[in-house]
Design goal:
The structure holds two protein chains of two kinds. Chain A is mainly beta. Chain A is built from two helices and twelve strands, in the order αββαββββββββββ. Chain A has one domain. Helices cover 11% and strands 48% of the residues of chain A. By secondary structure, chain B is α+β, with helices and mostly antiparallel strands. Chain B is built from ten helices and 19 strands. In chain B, strand 18 and strand 19 form a beta hairpin. In chain B, helix 7 crosses helix 8 and helix 7 runs antiparallel to helix 9. The chains are: A mainly beta, B alpha+beta. Chains A and B meet through helix 1, strand 5, strand 7, strand 8 and strand 11 of A and helix 1, strand 13, helix 7, helix 9 and helix 10 of B. Strand 11 of chain A pairs parallel with strand 13 of chain B, so a sheet runs across the interface. Chain A: It comes from Olleya sediminilitoris.
């Protein structure tokens, strides 16, 4: 009887808990639970994009460094975790530094964030620290060491935002970068 | 020896089970409602159903009727002379074991400017006791206080309401023991510019300000039982839902809190659709979804419920997004705009920037009345084969939740843009109307946004339905009509 009791307690402990559910990147949101989830890069797609990418032309250059944040959540009370990518950048024109972020920050103070769409396509949100303006766009991996970044304005109304400050967005809107 | 080994194995198996239990369990979200670290620091705006769950007072009418009123000639009104607003319930922790709830209540026969009543229900001596509190606005702007005085004017729990020298013209008995003090509580966001932890009380760092009322004393003689020196008090409740009061005399009324929310907001949209100016201009926006500009209209609703939208802003041709400067003195009841497809697709629901704008208007005090505010969008539709134009409206059903949602996600529009397209949400211009609608509704729900989304009929602007996420994580449609 004692043995049965101990065994029952042990086995039931495995089922008593509300465990986290892990989903791969190919799982659609409709198939996910609302909470206690981890959206994980199970195919290691991020390995292709994480690192430093650079466009250079004479004295002009635009460099992006991307880093993976495993099992990331925001805010810290959220039970929705995911493998995220954030980065930093440096933009030089005619040898002059135009805009730069020196550290890689996650939410809420990120300067560049990427969301996986496919293994070779990511949506991008980037904030230009000079103008305070942000753009959305896409980063497409063309080959193992070549990628294109295209940016555009997001739609919608913005009241009293930095977009109204008269300073132009200073980062390049369309570039081809080489992985370093 | 064998017996010893068997015994050790049994205990080992048992302990192994305990260890597995500890490590395989994920830490559940602490229900903030019960988090003791919020004692007298963070008041909670809770739902009526949460109040019922916590107090076990499932029928407020019956509870109030069961209270013994003092036979007192000085008491000219009773509790039944008030209507109760259950759309916004404030919860305040007096200490680790005692809670306090407050509702805004209104005298049925007369309302005096500058005076607000609260029904105040709190724990004392292991029971729920109730009072009526009166808050009188302080018109002296040189003071830092909101109220010139706070009184416990009536209790149904055997406490005499002592008559004071101040008689009001509706003859409510005055009194109550002791002095109630008022305290402002600032909710600092500690994010973005305020992440250093310094709360400078500017709008970027403070999401909400609440007012608590407290009284130190010995309440043991009041309701019997042992004396309990301590704090009595609660959180001032300025109310939440216009038109959603109920009469505690009417025990047959369905006091379902959610039902009241829907009715209130549906009434808002019904009034809106009856306003000619709204109808004409929303039709213009719907037509413009096939154009190449974004147009915005905003304006006000008068006391007769008629909306006029005199302010119009239009983007440059082919340029996505409108940047608008709104003066801090501008008061807005309705704000609407359209999306268009410039070849890069178009979101068939509100964009991240739209939610950013909603939050900025809220922070800057541009929203006349949070409970009567409506934001609308018309879009060309998604990428589904038969997708047509869409029309949606958003209302704020929980200001406290919306304020926190805004502090977390809407202080920069790039942040919400990133959240939109993350793997768990995938709200995108490149999917169908139905998918975007489902994902957007779930995003509002999952992130406890305090917002309610309504779907409109582009061919009949009087036809609206509320979108809701069920317990099983599906979307339902509840018609307003």
């Amino acid at each position: 009887m004692k043995k049965i009791l101990i065994l029952t307690l042990t086995i039931s402990s495995f089922f008593a808990c509300k465990a986290q559910t892990i989903y791969g990147f190919d799982t659609e949101p409709e198939a996910m639970e609302a909470n206690n989830i981890y959206i994980k890069d199970t195919n290691n797609d991020h390995d292709l994009i994480v690192g430093t990418w650079r466009w250079e032309d004479s004295n002009n250059s635009f460099e992006i460094t991307l880093q993976e944040f495993e099992m990331y959540n925001y805010p810290d009370t959220s039970t929705r975790y995911y493998d995220a990518i954030f980065g930093k950048y440096k933009y030089i024109v005619d040898g002059d530094l135009i805009s730069e972020t020196t550290t890689i920050e996650s939410l809420p103070n990120f300067s560049i964030g990427l969301n996986h769409s496919t293994s070779t396509l990511y949506s991008v949100v980037i904030e230009d620290v000079v103008s305070g303006k942000s753009m959305i766009g896409e980063f497409e991996i063309i080959s193992s060491n070549t990628g294109t970044l295209n940016l555009w304005r997001s739609e919608g109304i913005r009241v009293n935002s930095p977009d109204d400050n008269g300073i132009d967005f200073s980062l390049p809107m369309s570039v081809t970068l080489t992985k370093q | 020896m064998k017996q010893k080994i068997k015994t050790y194995l049994k205990y080992g198996l048992f302990l192994f089970g305990i260890v597995i239990f500890i490590y395989s369990c994920q830490k559940d979200d602490i229900d903030n409602y019960e988090n003791s670290s919020h004692i007298k620091v963070n008041p909670y705006n809770v739902s009526f159903s949460k109040f019922k769950e916590h107090t076990k007072i499932t029928n407020l009418s019956s509870y109030l009727k069961s209270k013994t009123s003092q036979s007192d000639a000085r008491v000219d009104v009773t509790f039944n002379d008030f209507l109760i607003d259950t759309t916004t319930v404030n919860h305040y922790l007096l200490d680790s074991e005692r809670s306090s709830f407050s509702f805004k209540i209104i005298l049925k026969d007369s309302v005096v400017d500058g005076e607000t009543y609260n029904l105040f229900i709190r724990e004392r001596d292991n029971q729920w006791v109730s009072s009526i509190m009166l808050f009188v606005e302080d018109n002296d702007t040189s003071n830092n206080t909101r109220f010139s005085h706070i009184e416990e004017v009536y209790t149904l729990d055997g406490i005499h309401a002592r008559q004071s020298n101040h008689h009001h013209n509706n003859s409510v008995a005055r009194g109550g023991g002791g002095t109630w003090s008022e305290t402002n509580i600032y909710h600092c966001t500690n994010t973005g510019e305020c992440s250093s932890g310094v709360c400078d009380l500017c709008y970027r760092c403070v999401s909400t300000v609440s007012i608590s009322f407290t009284q130190q004393g010995d309440f043991g003689d009041d309701v019997g039982g042992s004396s309990d020196n301590g704090i009595d008090g609660g959180m001032y409740n300025g109310g939440g839902g216009a038109g959603s009061y109920y009469d505690p005399n009417d025990s047959n009324t369905n006091h379902n809190e959610e039902e009241e929310d829907v009715i209130t907001d549906c009434n808002l949209l019904e009034n809106l659709s009856a306003s000619p100016d709204f109808a004409n201009k929303m039709q213009e926006l719907i037509n413009n979804t096939s154009g190449n500009t974004e147009i915005t209209y905003f304006g006000n609703t008068d006391e007769n419920g008629t909306t006029s939208l005199p302010i119009r802003v239009e983007s440059e041709e082919g340029v996505r997004g409108i940047d608008i400067g709104v003066n801090s003195t501008e008061q807005i009841d309705v704000f609407m705009h359209n999306h268009f497809n410039n070849g890069q697709g178009s979101l068939s629901v509100f964009s991240g920037s739209d939610l950013f704008t909603l939050y900025q208007l809220y922070l800057n005090g541009n929203i006349t009345d949070v409970d009567n505010y409506v934001m609308l969008v018309a879009t060309p539709g998604g990428s589904g084969a038969n997708d047509e134009e869409t029309v949606y409206a958003i209302t704020i059903n929980n200001e406290s939740s919306f304020s926190q949602f805004g502090a977390n996600f809407l202080h920069e529009y790039n942040l919400i843009d990133l959240i939109y397209d993350s793997k768990g949400n995938k709200i995108s211009p490149n999917i169908s109307n139905s998918l975007n609608e489902e994902r957007f509704t779930k995003l509002l729900n999952t992130f406890n946004s305090g917002l309610t989304i309504f779907k409109g009929d582009k061919d009949d602007l009087s036809n609206w339905s509320k979108l809701k996420v069920t317990q099983s994580n599906n979307i339902t449609n509840k018609d307003c009509n």
